[in-house]
Amino acid sequence: MAKAPGSIRDSICGYLQLIGGEASLNEISRAVRARMGATSPSSVRSYLNINVGKTFERTSRGRYKLKTNSNDFGDANGHKLNLDPVATIGKAKLYHSDCFEWLAAEPASSIHACVTDPPYGLVEYSETEQQKLRTGKGGVWRIPPSFDGHQRAPLPRFTVLDDEDRIQLYAFFKRLGMLLNRVLVPGGNVVVASNPLLAHIVGSAMTEGGLELRGGIIRLVMTMRGGDRPKNAHKEFHDVSVMPRSMFEPWVILRRPVEGRVQDNLRRHKTGGFRRLSAERPFGDVIRSRPTPKLEREIAAHPSLKPQAFLRQIVRAALPLGEGTILDPFAGSGSTLAAANSIGYASVGIESDPKYIKVATKAIAKLSALREVDPV
Ligand SMILES: C[S@@+](CC[C@H](N)C(=O)[O-])C[C@H]1O[C@@H](n2cnc3c(N)ncnc32)[C@H](O)[C@@H]1O
Fold it and tell me: I want to staple 347 with a disulfide (CB 3.0 to 4.6 A). Which of 163, 192, 259, 326 is the partner?
C-alpha cells in the first residue's frame, strides 16, 4: 500500500528524536515498520542516504542521527527544567524535573552510581493513567487477584504493550543509557529494577547506549504475575497456568566501562566494583526479599514502592568504597534516597510528578529513620 507523502520521514525523525542520538539502519527500519506497517528496509535506507547532509548525519557505516538537535535532549513532555532541589533531606537532594532533561544539564562524570526503578508501561505514569489509578477506573492498572483474602495494590499490565510500545521502551532505555553513561564516572554502577518480560530490552537498549552489561540481581519475592489459568476457560483447563507464577524480580546491572585496570579506576574514581558485606562475604546476586511492608506503604503512598530492607542492600553495595553520590532518576516516593540516607551516602533523586514530590518530601526522613526494616 502506498504510504502518505512524508510519513517515512516523520517516522524516522520521530524515532531519532526519541532516541536523542544515533541508531542503526536495522533499528530505524524496525521502528518505521512498527509505526507504519510493512515498509522495506531499502526504502528507509534510500530515504536516509538521500537526506544525509540535509536532515541526517551518517555517524559510521549503517548508523545515522538527526543532523540538528540530535544531542538536544529537549523536554518532550513539556516539563519545566528545575535545576534547584525542591528539598534537601539529610544527605539527599530531591529535584522536581523530567530526568532526561535534568541528566542532559548535569555536568559529565559527576555521579558514582545509579539505583532506580523506572516506569515500564511508559504510559502508566502519564497524567491520564495516574488519574485512572487514583479514581480506580479503567486504564492500564489492574487490581491483581486476591490469593489469600488480603487486599493487593494495583499493578501496571505490561501485557498491554504492543510492538510500537516495545520500540518506544527500547528507545527510552537507550536514551537513558546514553545520558547515564555521560554523567557517571568511569566504573559507575547502574542497577535497574525490571521484570522477567522486559529485562532483555533494558539490558540490550542500555548497552546500545554505551553502558556495559554486568549481570543481574535476583530479588526473590512472590510477585502477583503469572500463575493464572486461561481467561474464560478456567474450568476447562483447570490444571494449566498460562505463565509460571513469578517468584522473582530481576534487577539489571550495568556500568560505565572502567578506565584501565579496576584497581586504577577504584583509586581514581572510587568506582569499579561492589562493596563487600564483610571481609569474608562478597555481595551476592540473589537477595531474599518480601513485598513492601505495610508500615512503609503507610509512610510512602506510591504504587511501586520498593522495600527498605532490599534497597539498603543494593544501595550500600553500589558504591564499592562507600564514597560518592547515588542517583535515582525516577525517584517516586524517594525510597532509594531514604536507603542512601540510612547508610550515610549522598544521593540525588529526580521525580516529574508533583504529587510524588510531595510524598517523597515527607517520606524520605521517616523511611530512613526506620530501624526494623523486616530483613528476611
Ligand atoms: C516505578 S516508579 C518508582 C517508584 C519508587 N521505586 C518508589 O519506591 O517510590 C517510577 C517513577 O518515575 C516517575 N517518572 C516517570 N517518568 C519520569 C521522568 N521522565 N522523569 C522523572 N520522573 C519520572 C513516575 O512519576 C514514578 O513516580
Answer: 326
Runs of H (alpha helix) within 67-187? 99-105, 127-135, 163-183
- What's the pLDDT tens digit per position in 153-184? 555 555 557 788 888 899 999 999 999 999 99
Calpha distance 332→344 (Å, rounded): 20
The 3-state secondary structure of 334-345 reads CHHHHHHHHHCC
Distance 4 CA to ligand 1 centre (A): 37
CA of residue 332 to ligand 1 center, whole Å: 4
What atom in ligand 1 is closest to the CA of residue 311?
A: 8
* Residue 352 to residue 7: CA distance in whole angstroms: 32
Domain ranges of the chain: 7-66, 87-369
How far, in Å, CA of 69 to CA of 91, rounded? 35
- Compute the half-sphere exposure of residue 31: CA atoms within 13 Å on the CB side of its CA: 27
Q: Which fold has domain 7-66?
A: Arc Repressor Mutant, subunit A (1.10.10)
Quick one: cell of 37?
A: 506497517
Nearest to 63 by CA among 82, 88, 45, 43: 45
Q: What is the pLDDT of residues 290-333, one digit of tens each?
A: 999 999 999 999 999 999 999 999 999 999 999 999 999 999 99
Nearest Cα residue to atom 5 of ligand 1: 332
Mutation choice for ligand 1 from 18, 297, 352, CB with most ligand atoms inside 8 A: 352
Report CA-CA distances (Å) from 279 to 35, 69, 276, 283, 314: 53, 49, 7, 10, 17
Please tell me the distance from the alpha carbon of residue 7 to that of residue 28, in angstroms, as a whole number: 14
**Probe residue for ligand 1, chosen from 98, 123, 351, 366 as the CB with the greatest number of ligand atoms within 8 Å:** 351
Q: Whose CA is nearest to atom 17 of ligand 1?
A: 352
Cβ atoms of 257 and 264 closer than 8 Å? no
* Nearest atom, ligand 1, residue 77 CA: 19
